Amino acid sequence: MESTTKNVRPQYGILAVLMVGAFIAFLNNTLLNIALPSIMMELEVEASTVQWLTTGFMLVNGVLIPTTAFLIEKYSVRRLFLVAMSLFTIGTVLAGVAHVFPVLLAGRMIQASGTAIMMPLLMNVMLVSFPVEKRGAAMGVFGLIMMAAPAIGPTLSGWIVENYDWRMLFHFVTPIAIIVLLLGFFLLKDKKEKVDIRLDFLSVILSSVGFGSLLYGFSSAGTKGWDSPWVYGMIILGAVSLVTFILRQSKLDRPMLNFHVFKYPMFALSSSITMVVNMALFSGMLMIPIYVQTIRGISPLDAGLLMLPGALVMAVMSPITGKLFDKFGGRVLATSGLLLTVVTTYLFSKLTQDTSYTNLVVLNAIRMFGMSMVMMPVSTNGLNQLPRRFYPHGTAMNNTLNQVSGAIGTALLITVMSNRTVTHTKELMQDAMKNATGQPSEAAMAQMQQQITMEGMLQGINDAFLVASGIAAVALILAFFIKRSTPAEDPMEELPVNKKVAAELAAGK
């Protein structure tokens, strides 16, 4: 029982294999962003449709991650990792051979089912491996490895898309995923005693319907409109299902996702901040590639190079931020980083047809510098307040909320961009027809329409960035309430061993 209350010696071999697996998953995500315009052209889909490659990925994560607390408690690291990497590899192969959008989307969603298990698993192993006073530095090293993927991804993606078919992005990842799967098979040897806990299938259904309907409703608004009965019907269904899911968890002896973690104020605050930041973060990841390639005509490789300095800044800052967090806490870092994020996101809402490439690079780098000071410190500060037995539920809750907020943010901002593009295009076309002298030729009309469409899209992107800056401002206000966390006292620790076990089983905590 002593091992349940004290940190064990870090298992560096297991951590290394898990981090390589997570790195591949992160790399795959960043590879795809630059390729979205190319996929839109070849598969003949709109921005509101292609964003499902991102939203669908998050949707599956949002549905599956709530089950990971149960999975981590019941199964060994080895078994979970092998299942996760197998699913990720199968999805990668399927996406690589896709010639129609539904097959590509299916491959992405199978990939997501593997990633959904992998990330909470890695976070839980790190939490139990390092004491609170060393977690900032440990999470910083983890962040350095994870941020290397966004640093490499866009540039590598740009080069591949410019010289090969976008499917090479998946063909490139496939052999690496297979190697990581084999490494896990031979190197991970941990075993877990049989744990007699069962998953509540009604909770799984409520969670899946709740998160799935909510995300689908938000994501469909871009094509169907907010006034569509299908859109608000799905959102209402999702909200009702989630409320029912939360109420059920409070009554279960062994909740699938333990909402008692929100009794700890710093965890609740950190979850709120990271959700809001995630919603704003995806504005840049999706809309900058669309702007530079579709509107400005910049090549995929140059678009990837544009994102490189910002990703490198995040990678370099991650271990530094981890050490600063151990020394100064989360509030100073979060408020400073969010102030930079708000200002730079607002400046992105002023894009023009002539915004210089250098200006875009510098602005994105400063924005990423700000983000590097927020995500890991805020999340770590919240998790630090939880008693050890809540770690699986805390990491599962964080990852669930991050995926849900990221998907909602993506859907919301793409919807804003799409709807405002239509509005601006109509207004510009009406103004152009009023000011036209005589009847323009067919060629002149086509050229004018193309220019107006590009200008309408540009203004739609600016509007979406403006909304994103407002979202980031909410996170900035919340960050002023952050306090340094220490592990909360756990009443269960005061009980004798046999009573403690009985009480945990009875209370589901």
Automatic annotation (TrEMBL):
Pfam family, one: MFS_1
UniProt keyword Transmembrane present: yes
Transmembrane domains' residue ranges: 12-32, 52-73, 80-104, 110-130, 137-156, 168-187, 199-218, 230-247, 267-292, 298-316, 328-348, 360-379, 400-418, 464-482
Protein name (record): DHA2 family efflux MFS transporter permease subunit
Residue span, Major facilitator superfamily (MFS) profile domain: 14-487
Cellular component terms per the entry's GO annotation: plasma membrane
Similarity remark: Belongs to the major facilitator superfamily. EmrB family.
Keyword Nucleotide-binding found: no
PROSITE patterns: MFS (PS50850)
Domain of life: Bacteria
Cellular compartment(s): Cell membrane
Key words, A-Z: Cell membrane, Membrane, Transmembrane, Transmembrane helix, Transport
MF terms (GO), sorted A to Z: transmembrane transporter activity
Species in which this protein is naturally found: Bacillus salacetis
PANTHER family from the UniProt entry: MAJOR FACILITATOR SUPERFAMILY MULTIDRUG TRANSPORTER MFSC (PTHR42718)
